[in-house]
Amino acid sequence: MSDHDVAAIEAAVADLRKQVSDLHAQLPDNGLVMWTGGNVSGRVPGHDLFVIKPSGVMYPDLAPENMIVCDLDGNAIPGTLGSDRSPSSDTAAHAYVYRTMPHVGGVVHTHSPYATAWAARNEEIPCVITGMADEFGGPIPVGPFAIIGDDSIGRGIVATLDGHRSRAVLMANHGVFTIGKDAKDAVKAAVMCEDVARTVHIAKQGGELVPIPQDKIDALFNRYQNVYGQKPQGGMA
Amino acid sequence: MSDHDVAAIEAAVADLRKQVSDLHAQLPDNGLVMWTGGNVSGRVPGHDLFVIKPSGVMYPDLAPENMIVCDLDGNAIPGTLGSDRSPSSDTAAHAYVYRTMPHVGGVVHTHSPYATAWAARNEEIPCVITGMADEFGGPIPVGPFAIIGDDSIGRGIVATLDGHRSRAVLMANHGVFTIGKDAKDAVKAAVMCEDVARTVHIAKQGGELVPIPQDKIDALFNRYQNVYGQKPQGGMA
Amino acid sequence: MSDHDVAAIEAAVADLRKQVSDLHAQLPDNGLVMWTGGNVSGRVPGHDLFVIKPSGVMYPDLAPENMIVCDLDGNAIPGTLGSDRSPSSDTAAHAYVYRTMPHVGGVVHTHSPYATAWAARNEEIPCVITGMADEFGGPIPVGPFAIIGDDSIGRGIVATLDGHRSRAVLMANHGVFTIGKDAKDAVKAAVMCEDVARTVHIAKQGGELVPIPQDKIDALFNRYQNVYGQKPQGGMA
Amino acid sequence: MSDHDVAAIEAAVADLRKQVSDLHAQLPDNGLVMWTGGNVSGRVPGHDLFVIKPSGVMYPDLAPENMIVCDLDGNAIPGTLGSDRSPSSDTAAHAYVYRTMPHVGGVVHTHSPYATAWAARNEEIPCVITGMADEFGGPIPVGPFAIIGDDSIGRGIVATLDGHRSRAVLMANHGVFTIGKDAKDAVKAAVMCEDVARTVHIAKQGGELVPIPQDKIDALFNRYQNVYGQKPQGGMA
What we know:
The structure is a homotetramer of 237-residue chains. The first copy, chain A, is an alpha+beta fold and 237 residues long. Helix content of chain A is 42%, strand content 13%. Chain A contains eight helices and seven strands; from the N terminus they run H-H-E-E-E-H-E-H-H-E-H-E-E-H-H. Chain A has a seven-stranded mixed β-sheet with strand order 3-2-1-4-7-6-5. In chain A, helix 4 crosses helix 7. Chain A is elongated and about 60 Å long. Chains A, B, C, D: This is L-ribulose-5-phosphate 4-epimerase. Chains A, B, C, D: It is an enzyme of class 5 (isomerase).
């Protein structure tokens, strides 16, 4: 790749490098990750590229300049900043999502403890609190068991979330993947997924859960996607 | 509204803007909220107004000048600072409480995890620890299932708390609302509600709870409302 | 009291004011207290006095000069710094312990969540981990149900801990009191009490606990009281 | 020992003193220890020496110059910095590991709450999440009950971990020991051990765990030991 092309890419990704790097701080701050686990990526607007965390780097050492720019096959773009390092070992899964879900602008992966506990039982999280209806529109589903090494994790994420209200999937015996309209939206989904995973776990430990009628779940989800916040935001539905 | 009227309101709310903004920090610091969830409001002494958090703003971005001044129907006062934003999506519930409970000076709403877990089972928190008798005078009650969009949440809060010793209500499948003589007192109630929700949950997981005799609960509550702290404070009873 | 006497007392308590004030930070830092709950006191060496936290003051506002100097009946010494405020509402219990247990140099009270959960079931914490044998020499016992207002809490603490290896007692349906050779030692006992209350609770939730043979508990306790740390320290046994 | 020898040792351990001291901060930061509990050590490359924490010192007071240099019998080297203090009371166990496992470069000991809860039931942690297969290659095993005072803890650690994929052992009714190629690797194992102990505990509380097929565990472990991170790292297999 020519120096000219690299410079054009760096210009296009400069803001996103900082956004993605900064958003990583939300993962340890919200108790979603330990050590070097977890990763956030964001699609580069107008390019077939995304920005993702390097593999095996401690959180305090993350910085805009060591985020890695990848094409939609998950290959680092030679010559760009950080391309001397390996991207996150989950890059193939992120890449598969960006290739096949054009409306997705951000992807997050964590092994957050309560959500991963549901995943270890291959059990969806039932929608028994209104905040979960707002954010996810129903239960958080379980995706297939798949291991790293090919496209099987990416395929499982897409097969589960495509057409689903939820922006979060519990990959069986593994952890959480979330999608969003941008990286921040996907991080929000990861934070709220762990929050509801914890609350519903605690609730279930104490006795019988009371379900919310489906029409109320629908009403809450529709309202939240349209009117919450300072301008329309939320999921991608 | 004239510039003169706006200036008079801003003069009346200046201290309260800072109090309410600062008190919001207690919510994440005490583990009561995630992301932009939760809200605190305070009544403006001597005016039919209250100050509340804007909708969908991250906690570190809250500041006195973006708190929103509302009338008792929950409408932002045109021309006041922050009135270009939407107030919290829970503003209607806060407004209903201020309209119908004139002794209430502060309202807080959270989805704090342990309290919301009890709410997901529509189960009141039994009063089995003396600190809970001090603070709440008995069990923390469950309010009706109600969804956002009209006065039904506000009506449920008032119907449950009016005449009740508790300053906290677990709204079914939703979360916690607390009231207080001022915003700080309502925040204290929200913090203590989560504390007892957690302790009693843990206790119940381990076996049989030992009840406290009603006359002891009464004695503890009456003492705490009258003699604790540097001067009389506590609930509004 | 003469200005001269007050000055002599202030000279005697200057270091202790700072120690007791600083030690209070350990309570929120270790998750033992919420809001203004919890209190630490320390005996003034060579005087029938102790220093304790004021009532109802937020943790960040505690400082050496607002700690309160009390006699062994729990009365603030007129003219000393901070004596315009009320001492902690638990002062009578601290005073009773200092009056009747001359070897005690520090007392701590908290409603730390896991320990208070055991207290809500009036259930002692069994000694199933070696760190608990080291620190407490066996189970952490339950004291009687007693409410604030007279000496009954203090009597219950002393009746339970006098001659017991444990420096911590779970007061029934209330919370934890710990004693120590000085204020720091009592704070350590409060921190370790919550730690073992949590670990043993989690262990018990998962299945059958494996007991430690009594002779091993004895050996661990005896060794720890004599050889751990840079010089002999630990409990008062 | 001559001043010359001491100077040579100090030159050899200078970097390691800082590494081991700094790594201790990971223990409280990750919720693995309370008060003065827990310890990290690292082998001095090319010498029959290791560096370890002093006994009974608070975490904020740890510094490179108070770390203690010991020979492989666990005796502090006279004349070296910090040798006027006692090394960690767990030094004998660390020394035994270094003597008998020459490929081990770091050892960590904690009483982290979830892992110690499994230890209190003498129950291994089953491998039901892929991140655990990556890091530990299967279940985290239980070692024998052994108490401090001779080599029995060290012998139990080595007997359990020698030839095992796991770098962590749950010593019965006691806590966790981890080993690594260096001190940082052992700290990582301690952090991840607590993480999986917590997640699997929570999962088990909620119902039936779904096992991962053995061939998938094998594939995950082999890949992670060889390709994760910026260069080959991970366990010592």
